[in-house]
Every structure is written in C-alpha cells, then in structure tokens.
Automatic annotation (TrEMBL):
Residues 12-89 form the Nas2 N-terminal domain. One of its GO terms (cellular component) is proteasome complex. The keyword Chaperone applies. The gene is LOC107479263. Keywords: Chaperone, Proteasome. One of its GO terms (biological process) is proteasome regulatory particle assembly. Residues 144-212 form the PDZ domain. InterPro entries: Nas2_N, PDZ, PDZ_sf, PSMD9. The keyword Chaperone applies. It comes from Arachis duranensis (Wild peanut). PANTHER family: 26S PROTEASOME NON-ATPASE REGULATORY SUBUNIT 9. This is Probable 26S proteasome regulatory subunit p27. SUPFAM superfamilies: PDZ domain-like.
Length: 230
C-alpha cells in the first residue's frame, strides 16, 4: 500500500512538474522573442534611461514569476527523487513478501513488487516505472536534469539541430552531472567541433534523444545557446 501511494503521488508530481515546465517555456519564449530584453538583459538604454520599447513592469513581473517557477520546479524534482528512493528501498522488503503471497488471488503484492523492481536496477537520475493500464499503471520517467536551455539564438547550431528553449539536459556527450558543469559543457563542445554529440533531454515531461554538432556560425560560440545549471 505504501509503494502504491508513493507511486500515485509521484505520478501527480510529474504532472505538476510538466505544468510548471509549460509555463516556464511560455515565459522564456516571450522574454527571448525578437526585440525582447531576454532573461537578464538590461531594462535601461545606453544613457541609463528606462527603455521605451518594452513594457518594463511586465518584464519584471515575468522574470519574478520565472524565478518562482524555477524554485517550484526544483522542489518538485527533489520530492520526486525522494519518492523514488523510497520505492527503491521498499523493494528489498516487498520482493520476498510478493513471492510468498503471489497466490493470494488479488495480485496486489505482485503488482507492488513489479513497481519497485522496475526501478531497482536503474540509477536514481533516470528511473522508469513501467506498468500496464489494467492495474492503474502508466510509464513514468523520473529524471534529474542538470541544466536547462534558457537562451537560444535563431539559426544557431543548437536551434537547427533541434534544441529548444526550456529543454532540460540529462546528458550532453559525456557530461551528465557533477561539478564545474558549465566548464565541462564548454569543453565537450570545443572538443567535438564539427562532430555529432549525443544529447538526452526532457521536453515537457518527455525524454528525447538528439544529436547536435558544435560548429562555427555567424553568431557567438559553437552552439548559439546558453545553459543554466539546475
């Protein structure tokens, strides 16, 4: 019962996190559209006066809201990861019980065991709970992205290769997690100029595999995008 309740809560949290991501992507798209100030651009002109080409109160409001959503996203992700750890730990106790009571007729223990077994051999950063619809089950991917695309230039290598604003990075080449992530992402791009780099992202709750090719173009950098470390 505990595993079932935790699983249901995790599914609900995944839905909530997806809704947060959708709202974040919408705000990012508005702030980074042509003529907009971006996520952190100046709101004053070169002479120090408020810019007249943008609605400054709206921009400030959306930036505040984006900061709130990022905090919410981090909290939700942390709770999801905690739930996964609970399911992972419960496997040891539930597995033997499941086998002993597999002839009960209701199949409840077996279902709980299969729920935990599905995550037992997978790293906590990227865990799949797989079940059938007849037992209230769906596929749920619980992941721990380490970065998010928060700026991307039109016609840049990143944009042409399929990256989008709000994409969350699970893996970029050999970079998955750890320290000095921005430096390692930059090094990964620089060491793979004109070569494809496999990238795994989460976009609105869906895991997507891409390949990007760092290369020189008319803009800055080799990718034309900016990663924010989560």
């Amino acid at each position: 019962m505990v595993a079932t309740n935790v699983k249901a809560e995790t599914m609900s949290l995944m839905d909530k996190r997806t809704a947060v991501e959708v709202e974040m992507n919408s705000i990012i798209a508005r702030l980074t559209q042509p003529g907009a100030p971006g996520l952190s651009g100046n709101l004053v002109d070169s002479e120090g006066f408020p810019r007249t080409d943008i609605d400054i109160p709206v921009v400030r409001s959306e930036r505040r809201r984006l900061a709130e959503l990022r905090n919410d996203h981090n909290e939700i992700t942390e709770k999801i990861n905690q739930n996964i750890q609970i399911l992972h730990a419960a496997r040891v106790g539930n597995k033997s019980t499941s086998f002993k009571s597999s002839d009960n007729g209701d199949g409840s223990d077996t279902q709980i065991s299969s729920t935990v077994d599905a995550v037992a051999s997978t790293p906590p950063q990227n865990i799949l709970l797989r079940h059938s619809p007849d037992s209230m089950d769906v596929d749920v991917l619980v992941s721990r992205p380490f970065a998010m695309v928060d700026e991307i230039a039109d016609a840049s290598p990143a944009a042409e290769d399929g990256l989008q604003l709000g994409d969350q990075i699970l893996k970029f080449g050999s970079v998955e997690a750890g320290d000095n992530l921005l430096q390692r992402l930059s090094s990964e791009a620089q060491s793979n100029v004109d070569r494809t780099v496999p990238v795994i992202i989460i976009r609105q709750g869906t895991v997507i595999n891409l390949t990007v090719t760092p290369r020189t173009w008319q803009g800055r950098g080799l990718m034309g995008c900016h990663f924010r470390i989560l």
